[in-house]
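Troubleshooting log. The previous structure file for this entry was overwritten by mistake, so regenerating from the original sequence record. Sequence copied from the archived sheet and checked twice against the printout by T.R.
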Amino acid sequence: MLQTPPLLRENRLYQADWLLRYYGFKAEELLDETHPNFNHLLDPKCEWALRHLECFPVDINQADFYTLLRVPGIGVTSAKRIIRARRQFRLTFENLKGLGIVLKRAIYFITCSGTYFNHARYLNASFIETNLLYQEKRSASILQQAKQLSLFDTLVPTKEDTKKCLTGNL
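Regenerated output below.
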């Protein structure tokens, strides 16, 4: 009988694959002899950042595209938005929120023109890890409460849903 890998392990492998394909990471950066396995509590990008705090903080207004990609919480689309926006003006944390960048992970690893978020310096590995783990734990508990829908589940639309469909006000 074929056993499936644990879902979290499979998810971490997909995340690592994404980092290798689209973010410019090399396999030996993510895993090595001292860290032969992925941390099941943190995603591979956050784990890498915590092991390489010497690369941080990154100044959003000066970093190149590939450096921005290494910041947890900043993906390809966000990095492109940052590069495009900073051609027009110097970015602040409020500007980053306005660009749709989720700062819950990134704030520990970035500055805006040398200023930290809330004027606090976060480059303490244990502080960052504790906060990132708390965020992961909250996300996991929310996901555990959610139920995956099946194509065969029957959902009965409410009167409000029917009205919205008929009027086009989705």
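The mean pLDDT is 85. Archived copy saved in two places this time.
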